[in-house]
Design brief:
237 residues, alpha/beta, 41% helix, binds 4-methyl-5-hydroxyethylthiazole phosphate, binds magnesium ion, TMP-TENI-domain-containing protein
Amino acid sequence: MKPQVDYSLYLVTDSTAAILGDRNLVEVVEQALLGGVTVVQYRDKSNDTGVLISTAKQLHKICQQHSVPLIINDRVDVALAVGCEGVHLGQDDMGITNARQILGDDKIIGATVSSIDEAKVAVEAGADYLGIGTLYATATKKNTKDIIGINGIRKILYYLGHQAGEASQSIKTVCIGGINASNLKLVHHRLYAPSSNSERPKTIDGVAIVSAIIAAKDVREATANLKSLPPALPPFE
Ligand code: TZP
Ligand code: MG
């Protein structure tokens, strides 16, 4: 059965020296799990399949100890080899329909979307969640084609919330790009806080973060701090 997922604090890993430094990724992710991340996505652009599988297996073990799902970026083959909970696919990766055929209904499939059209395609193909972005410009991913800001994300949420049909209503959403402890309250306020406003029936289910966790000096403390930040302002109407 597909696991129920808490998307509220979704960690995306990065193994580059600029972010991870000379620290060990598995140890860093363990600190983030102790701090309270609720999903881990292993994102590693290396093409060394052996390294990817071996690291993913280690990550899966510690994620399981914390009952947190492990999602693999880009590589359906690695997710299959590891037997983890799912994959995250960008616009240039394997299509969602193919991935679903290979992985079956019990695995989680997430898709990166930057526009209403991309969101529509991902929903129709049966994605479980959308990673919507890029919210704010970020040094972590320099080649992002679309910085869509708060308003771009709200437009996609509005679209999803106003589509007839179970798939649009039930699909989960996280936003990504440049989110940190300084702007998280604003992000919550504009995109996350529950609202009775029928103009805005859908809100994000969580935030996806790379550097504000992975590059932190004390990863556990930084994660716990992000987790503890309540929306500063009343719900946006
Ligand atoms: N996709 C859009 S932005 C991004 C990805 C993977 C990187 C986000 O990194 P950070 O450090 O949280 O800004
Ligand atoms: Mg990708």
